[in-house]
Every structure is written in structure tokens, then in C-alpha cells.
Amino acid sequence: MFSWIALGMDKMNFMSGEIAACLDHMKKHVKIVGAKMKKWPGSTWETIWEVGREDPRRVIHGLKVGLSLTLVSLLYLMEPLFNGIGQNAIWAVMTVVVVLEFTAGATLCKGLNRGLGTLLAGSLAFVMEYIAEESGHVFRAIFIGAAVFFIGFASTYIRFFPHIKKNYDYGVVIFLLTFNLITVSSYRVHNVLKIAHDRFYTIAIGCGICLLMTLLVFPNWSGVELHHSTVSKLEGLAKSIEACVNEYFSDEEKETSEDKSSEDPIYKGYKAVLDSKSSDETLALHASWEPRHWRHCRFPWQQYVKLGSTLRHFGYTVVALHGCLQTEIQTPRRVRALFKDPCIRLASEVSKALRELASSIRNRRQCSPELLSDHLHQALQDLNTALKSQPRLFLSPKTHQSTPTPTNANANANANLLALATQKPEKGMGVSLTSFKTDTLALMEWKSNKRASCEQAKTLRPTLSKIAITSLEFSEALPFAAFASLLVESVARLDLVIEEVEELGRIASFKEYEAEDEQVVVTCERPKGESVAGDLKNLPTEGAD
Amino acid sequence: MFSWIALGMDKMNFMSGEIAACLDHMKKHVKIVGAKMKKWPGSTWETIWEVGREDPRRVIHGLKVGLSLTLVSLLYLMEPLFNGIGQNAIWAVMTVVVVLEFTAGATLCKGLNRGLGTLLAGSLAFVMEYIAEESGHVFRAIFIGAAVFFIGFASTYIRFFPHIKKNYDYGVVIFLLTFNLITVSSYRVHNVLKIAHDRFYTIAIGCGICLLMTLLVFPNWSGVELHHSTVSKLEGLAKSIEACVNEYFSDEEKETSEDKSSEDPIYKGYKAVLDSKSSDETLALHASWEPRHWRHCRFPWQQYVKLGSTLRHFGYTVVALHGCLQTEIQTPRRVRALFKDPCIRLASEVSKALRELASSIRNRRQCSPELLSDHLHQALQDLNTALKSQPRLFLSPKTHQSTPTPTNANANANANLLALATQKPEKGMGVSLTSFKTDTLALMEWKSNKRASCEQAKTLRPTLSKIAITSLEFSEALPFAAFASLLVESVARLDLVIEEVEELGRIASFKEYEAEDEQVVVTCERPKGESVAGDLKNLPTEGAD
């Protein structure tokens, strides 16, 4: 009995504790909101300014919407127009609010969906009316109810079809809306088809104004947007890969910040590429409605989507390269420096090719036949030569211990591993492994003995895994090998990108490349052979093997 | 003069050619459509069946929408209800069509947005009416026109603010719609506030039915969907990384198909992860409106989004691993086999950890403290040992030519390189490089002499780049080093994933882990030391260096 009461008390304590925590949380929230309110006017002005500065077309679009609404309101406000059209003028206002979108393609897509949905629903409702006309009052109500149920079910279900969802989702909603409005109204209002007819006119006027505004007054084209975004993605990747390699070989040690701040030029370069799938597809869908390129039968917007997907895959390679910069085990800078020149040259050749592709798309011309220049091959070969000239590089670090290196200290910069790390250069490898072994054993014992509470386990685990990775005596060059291999991989991926861009140029009939179009300035000359060879000599080649 | 005519004729020829191409294209299109129409009934039934089978909740949702619409139509169809509510009942129908969405969160989000937008617009319109009431007819029209313009501009512009766009986009549209309807109507209809008042009731009824249906009848929760999708993403990654490593070390040669068919288990595993950003964010947004977890003050849906982003970054590493399978230069299978056991074990440990994380989230319990098992460390160490036991591996392939290998033939399976490839094993490396050199030189001459037309350049370039990559005598082990390094990298990324999952468990107060919850069956035992050592002996260690 007492235990029950105690349990109940416990529960109440627990609940009151929860409520107190909740109140606490709310208090904090209120404080934060209060602080925000003080800064509110300033930050709001900043946002307003920033949004407009980022893309001035937004301001224009806002003005366009305001103007269209005012124009369409005139139908209602001006006496002669109102006399002609009447109360239904309000439907024109509704149409403008709902249909007018930022780009011409989106407006057309929505407008046509709306038109098609309304027409279909009107026809179907007419058929229904025809069937139900002769029947009695009660039967008619049942018939309408059943029709509403069935059409509601069918059109909701149809919205899950991938093809419908992608292209006609809005149209189906409008179909359902209109069908219900007409069918249900027809039960009590008898001139419903007359009303539908009148409304159709005003909706057509609304659509007309939208088309006028979207196609003729400062039009924004989805196609152009897609085009520009593709160009900027190519340029972003070019920047990213260059910055990545430069940072890898830079001399000063950067603290590896875990949070990818937007300031990081590498992250900024590929960020837009990675999550571009849905925006690409939407833009391509809207672009396919735009009348601009109808003379080409069908402008290949889907090719842009394909190119985007290839670029995303290129982007994943760049992310993996970026990962090499942030990983736990690092090849010492001294070793990296040996391969600095060929790697930087290779990266700059890849990004040059990407920039050439970007400029070819921007100017809608086919890409230069000298795109994959001999410089690229030269850089690949130099990297190859450099790698081969260092056969001993991939040996375990212990085999060339004769030279004093700051290697392990670098790799194990982790504070709580410092003791372990400073031990290592003195002791042999077996010792180091043993020391790790005992470490784990100790941890295991500690765990089984103490029934580690989760809070403790949390602080423990990351360290544990870091020990596991950094304490391993992987061949120092392994991470560099990964870096080099990914760099070569990026060249292979570049090929796929070039193929897609060429395909795009072919389908979209870009103008032919003319050598006079631009003088390609070769900025990255191959440095003199001596300097590379000189660098390479620095590595101790006397192995203990 | 003649030249002008000739030019004109040329242009006409060009245009007629274009038109002919267009017609051709259309004919093809018609044929394809015809063929499709024949298969239409069968494939449609298939799609209908498939969509329902994939997720039976879709059928239920369809039935719910049908039922709600019928219920709301009764307001209009049944005499007593209609007498109470009148013509405005039609607005309830509209509300249901527009507001009722698949998940409870989405419905609530839309419903509240709609409600808020309508209320705000109504209040603002009331203020406007109050100001304009006393003025003359003409001034009033001008005032209304100006208000419509200004509010139209401001609310369109405000939709570009990231915060508004994310949370209240629909609400702003409804605000604009309602404001215009009321303000413009008020010019001619004088009891407009009475109408608005009546409509508000029917809209409330519509919203009520939507809430009832969405919250009480077979509810679908966005939160649960997000939860499940996170679990399945973790499991997909686990499958993917395992399949990837298994395929890398499998004995039979698979043809590397460039198109990532959906059948590929590796691609299938990580596909859902890569493009999950927008769906994750939408689900989290909708989930935050759901009342299910209100007792937690604020359930940490944003933590799911953060975890999703970490998973995406893990996914990029898996993509890079997958890239190692498809790359041009491949480490020969004979060499790979040496590291088969530790790599496969490492991968299976990583995927075991991912599966444990998935199951911990699925069961809403904190994850096992033995998550990063010693098996993982053991596998890491074994890989380390295996790598170190092969110091000569990273030498150029020419240095251990004594054993006959099918290596280069494999790597250069490219048909047009066969001649080059078969030459290579016989000749020394210098020769091979020279042969490549002359190849490029020949190409360069050919290019400069012949002014390569772009069509020719297209067929030429990919080959050129493939020659460049495959003909390089990179150390054979370089690609394997990348593979191993990425595998180790995935362990490091796993750490970040674990951190996020633990953070999620902490914030969402998952129940504590109990050892009895499930008996972890250790399936991947460490193979006996002898077999590894035996394998390692197979590599020829007599170098020519």
C-alpha cells in the first residue's frame, strides 16, 4: 500500500518536475523573444534591404503583382466595366492572386493547370447534371453525394502517381475544387451553368492579365535561371576544387573547424551543387512550358537536369577531397610538399576545364576542342612521375626514422592523446600497439565493472574511436594516396561532365566554337623540371628495410 | 545582288530543313504516343495497383478525403442544415479541398496558415473600410486601388524572406486573397462584413472536419514519417557500405555499367540519403505543428534534420567508395584479395554500428554503450597490420614483374587501348611513356593540321582522356589506398553520426539502454590469424629495387 503511494508521489514529483522544466523553458523562450524584439526594427530593415539587394527582380515582381491586382480590380471599381461583367469580376482578382508567379514558366504551368482543371471539371459536372436532372429530389442528393465521394477519392489517389504529382498536381486540386463547387451548387441553384459560363470569362480575363504581365513586362524565365544556375554550379566546383588543393598544400596549419561555416570557400563552392536536385527539376519543368524556345521543337531542359546530376556526382568527389582535409590521420606537410606542384597543377587544369565549360554554356557555344589540354595530361604524368620517384614513401613511418620529423605530433594533435603520441617516436611499433591494446582492455574492464551510465559513455566514446584511428600506425602516405587518387578520379568524372555538356551543346544546337572567340590565356605554366626534382631529393630514401 | 539572293535561299533552305526536322520529330512523337496508347490500359492498372501497394495509407487518405467532402456537402444538400447556414456552405467545401493534406502536420500547418491569413486580412480590411467609409465615391475607388497595389506589392515581397517562405508562404497568399476579396467587394456590397462573418463560420466548420479527419481517423504523422525515414536511411547506408566492400573484393568481374540502375544495391542504399534535404525539412516543419509531443514542450525535430545532414555527409563518403569500384584505374584483384578480410570485417562492423543506431532510434531507446565495439578496433588494427606487412605493394608494378599477372590487361580493358596494353608488359616503363607521348603528339598535330571539326573532336576527346588516365603507370596500389583510406574515413564519420544520434536520444529523452533489450549476436567473427597470414604470403616480395 505504502509502496503504491510512494510510486504515486514519485510520479507526481516527476510530473511536477517536468512542468517546472517546461515553465523554465518557456521563461527562457520569453526572454529570448524579448531580446529579439528589441533588435527587431533594425534587423527587419536589414532583411528587407538584403532580400531586394540579392535579387532586384524580386522588387520588380512585387510591383508587377501590385499592378496586376490594381488593373484587375478596375473591373470591379470602374462603373462601365462593372456593368458589363458584374459581380463575377471578383473571380478575376482571385485568379491573379493565385496564378501569377515569379517566373513565366511557373505562371504558365499554373495557369494552364488551372484552365485545364476547370474545363475538365466543368465538363464532368455538366454530364453529371444531365444524368441527375430527370431524377427525384432525394435520389439526386444521394447521387451528388456519391459522385462527390467517388471523385474526391479518385482525384486524391491520382495525386500520388509520380507523373501526375510532378506535372499536374495543382491542376487536379483545381479540378476537384471546381467540380465540387459546381456539382454541389447545382442542387439548389438552377442556372449554375450560366454562372459557370460567366465565371469562366472573368477567370480568362485574370489569366490574360497574368500572361501579359509575366511574358511582356520584365519577364523572368525559368529556363534562363536554370541556365545561369548551371553555369554558376560549374564555376563553384572549379573554385572549390582549386581552393581544396591549395589548402591541402598550404604551409600554415589551419584549425580544422568542424562546423562548415559558410565562409569556407571550399564548402561555399560545392554547397549549391549538392542539394540542387529538386530546384533543378522544378526549374526544368517550368522552363518546358515557356514559349521562348519553341522553334527548337523542344528545348532540351531535361539535358540540364542530367548535367546537374552528373555535376552532383562530381561534387561528391569534391566533398570526399574536402574530407581528406578534415580527417583524423594526416600525411605530414613535409611529405605532402613533395607532390605540391603536380597536384596543384592538376587541380588548376581541372578547374580551368570546368571554367571553360561554364563559359561555353554561358555563351551558348560549343566547347573548345582543346578543352582537355595537354597541360592536363602533363600534370597527370608529372604526378605519376613524382609518385614513382618516391617508392619508399609508402613504407611504414618507422622505417625512415633517421630523420627527425614533427609527423606524429601533428597527426595526433588531439590533446588527450598527447602522452601517447610523444611516447610513440621513441618506442617501437610493437610497443605502441601494446599500449593501445592495454588501453582498450582497460576501457573494457572499466565498462563491464562500472555499468557505464550513458552520460559517461557519451563523453568516452568519441575519444575511444579517435584513439582507435589516430593510434594506428597506418602508412603515413595512405591519406595522401587517397587524396591523389580522388584527384585523378575527379579527372575521370570531368570526362562525364564534358560528355554531358557536349551533348547539351549538340541537342540545343549551340553555335560552333571559333578559335577567335577568346584567346585562352594559359596562366599555369609547367614549372621547370629542376625545381620538382630538387624538391623530390629532399625525401630521405635510405630505408631500414 | 546574287549573293543576297543566295543568302536568302540558304536561309530558307535552313528554315525548311528545320521545319522538316520538326515534323520528323513530331511524327516520331506521334508513333511513340500511339505505341504507348496500346499499352495504356495495362500499364495504368499496374500503376494504380503499385501506388496503393507501395503505401496503403494512400488509399485510406483518398477515402478520408472523399468522406470529408461528402460530409461537408451535406451542409448544402440536407434541408435543415442548409436553412441554418445558407449559400455560404460552399465555402466549407472549398476549405476541405484545399486544407486536407496527407499528414496531420501538413493539414494543421495549412489550416492554421489559412486561419491566420484570413483573420489578419479581415482585420486589415475592416480598418481600411473604416478609413474609407466617410469619403466620396471617387476618392474611395482610388483609395481601394492604392491599397490593393500596396498590399499586393508588400505581401509578394515578403514571400521572398527566407523565414516567411519556409513557414508562412501559404498564409501570405491566403491573406492577400482574402484582403482583396473583402476590400474590392466592399466597394459595391455594403454588408460585406456580415458576409465575411458568415463565411468565417463555414470555413471554421470545414477546418473542423479536416482536423477531425486528420487527427482522429487513421492519422498519418509527419513526425513518425521523419522518424521512419531516418531509420531507413541508416539501414540503407549500412547495406550500401557492406555491399560496396563485398563487390570490391568479389572474385567475378562485373561489367561496370555507367548507368546507375536502380537494381544496384549499393546505389539503392545511399540514393534516399543524398537528396533527402528538402523532404527532411518539410517533414520536420510539419511535424513541429503536430500535437503529439507537446508534453515535451518542443520535440526536437530539428535534431532529425541535423542528423539527416550528418547522414548525407556520411553518404558522400559512401559515394566516393562506390566511385572506387567504377574508376578507370583499378588495383588488380590479386592485390586486393590480400586485404579482403580486414576490409570486409571493418565494413561489416561499421554497418553493424549503423544498424544498431537504426534500431536504437526505431525503438526510441538510447544506443548501446558497446556500440563502437572492440571488433571495430580490431578490424582497424588488422587492416593496419595487413597494410604494413606489404611495404613493397606501393612500388611501381614494374618492380615486381617476375610474376606473370593479368594486371594491365584488366586495367586497360578498353578496346581501343588493347594494342597499347598488350605491348606494355613486355616493354619497360620508359617505352610505355614514350608511346603515350607520341600518341599525344600525333593527336596534337592532327588537331592543328586538320582544324578538327567539333563532331570529330567529340568522338576523340573521351578516348584521349582515357588514354591519359589508363596509360599512366600509377602505383597499382594507389586506388586501393584510396579505398582503404575512405573506409577509415567512414569510421571517422560514423563518430559524428553517433554523436548526433546520442544528442537526439538525450534531447528527445529516449528510454535508457538495457542490456537485456536484445542479445547482440556477433556474426562476424575474426577469422583465424593463419589464413590472413597465409594470404599475405602470396604476394611476391622480391623487389627489383
UniProtKB/TrEMBL annotation, chains A, B:
It is found in: Membrane. The chain crosses the membrane at residues 89-109, 138-158, 170-188, 200-218. The keyword Kinase does not apply. Keywords: Ion channel, Ion transport, Membrane, Transmembrane, Transmembrane helix, Transport. It holds the Pfam family ALMT. It comes from the Eukaryota. GO terms for cellular component: membrane. GO terms for biological process: malate transport; monoatomic ion transmembrane transport. It is a multi-pass membrane protein. Belongs to the aromatic acid exporter (TC 2.A.85) family. This is Aluminum-activated malate transporter like.
